Amino acid sequence: MRLTTLTAAAALALVSISTSLSGQRPDDQINPRSMALLQQGEAARAAGQLDRAAGLIETALAVDPRNRQAFNVLAEIARARGLPGQSIRLYREALALEPTDLRALRGQGEALVAKGAMVKAQENLAKIRKLCGNDCTDATALAAAISKGPPATATAQQSVTPAQAPAATPAKP
Fold first, then answer.
1. Region Disordered: which residues (predicted)?
2. Whole-number Cα distances in Å, 101 to 1, 71, 72, 166, 167
3. Which of residues 129 and 6 earns the better pLDDT score?
């Protein structure tokens, strides 16, 4: 009786695993509708229509969430809008699909530099160099961004001296 239960459990586990693996598509079989939406989004981005481009590319991801190129383009749009944190998250999604995506590694590294996370950016540079060596354009571009450093953030706070402070008016009874 025990052996039958164990055998049935093992068979069920084997069927579950094989079913889940057969349902997954490889990276190179992206839904054609998703690719068409991505191309439309890239055209809108090139025309300077970032809101329209983001909408089209988000739709491309809804059609096929395995569209790694769409994550990369959406991350680049986020960087263009000055949102490096969102960009880092989107590049992370692309890297979850393909950990050796040089475009995502470089873009995430540049976004990390913009956030001031230089150590993590160096880690991305090391991964890129491991994949393609020192002479590839992605390694060169990220190394240049790291050497330039994070952008200087100007704080527009002015100190208010007591003479400039507005006079308090007493409350009327």
1. 148-173
2. 51, 11, 10, 57, 60
3. 129
